[in-house]
peptidoglycan glycosyltransferase
Amino acid sequence: MASQKLKSARAVSPRKIAKTRKPSIPITAISRAFFDRVFKAQSIEFYRLLGITLFLVAFGLVMVLSASSIDSLVANNNSFEVAGRQLVFAAVGLVALSFVSLMSVEYIKSKAKLFFIGAMGLQLAVFFIGIDVNGNRNWIDVFGLFTIQPSEFLKVAVILHVSLYLSTQQQYLDDPKVWQRAIFISAAAIALVLAGRDLGTGLIMLITFVGLMALAGMPGKLLNMVLLGILILTPLALMSSTSRMGRITAWLNPNGVDPLNYNWQSEHGMWALAAGRVFGAGLGESKMKWSWIPEVENDFIFAIIGEELGLVGALVVILLFVFLAFSMLRIMQRTSDPFKRNVVQGVMLWIVFQALVNIAVVLRLLPVLGVPLPLISAGGSSLISALTAVGVVLAIERENHSQPRTARPQIQRGSKSSLRRKA
């Protein structure tokens, strides 16, 4: 019996055994493919967006160092405390940008729902293990080392998840039932943020998601209903907090409120801009950073930019965000894929509108909302989430450049029932 098994084993030819084995990929081939992907020449839009982003981050590090040096010295006996921490956050964010930009768009799509669930779970955790900062409960303390603001990552997660959902419903975009789910996803995320009393972040998310759905093809009648609902609910949200009403009253009537409680930042922010004039007082020469403006390296860093670099420096920052929007718009126009278009639109709306709101607050065109200047203000969650989002856009442009450009498809639209009848 044993001899028969031995003979049968010998009877199998080496060629047949070789065919049954799975071919192995040499490590050198994998590494070569990786480096080819990393160092392959990309489009001008790719490098333009990357260059603007890197410049804004580097510029932000310089301005954070300048704005925070005095308060850091007083509080920690170290002028570089806040700036050093921001440098670490920038390094983490740039690693995230690089890592995400090398991912395939299909892989990002496959993880969009999981990312959304994780971000929603993290935002829910705020109500159990979160901490209050300036009256808002939207932060989680990590072992006393640093804090995380989950709402910043929730912005990216909702953009990806809503974009994925709408990309699977392209034939039914005239059906209101399709939009109900997209509205519910966005509204649930915004409600969690507002429950933590963070009106500024909630406002940015609202503008971003409504703009995304409008550009994605929401029917005009439904869009008008959504806007009407926002007009009705916004005053209720504002009146639910005495501090919010105080800020709005201070904005509408600066001389009629207690300046120490509600108007201090706005008033001194305008003084900083006025002191800068055209060319500024010089880098590091701000007077308002000497503890005159609370949290000056965060929400009011644009005031220090205006004071130290003048009107010229402030206009350069505004133009950089305009170029950033133009670059993303060009990337969006280069693809016909609905998911890619929606993601780029969402990221563009988020970063540009948040920059506009921040600058408008410093210019007293809006009440104080506590919104940071994207890619520039101090804050790890804001910087890392924004760089991750830019990484997704770069991944999309990387695929745009490697694939032949196709015309945007003409989609037959209607309700699900009407399309079934036509079929």
About this structure: Residues 226 and 232 are 10 Å apart (CA to CA).
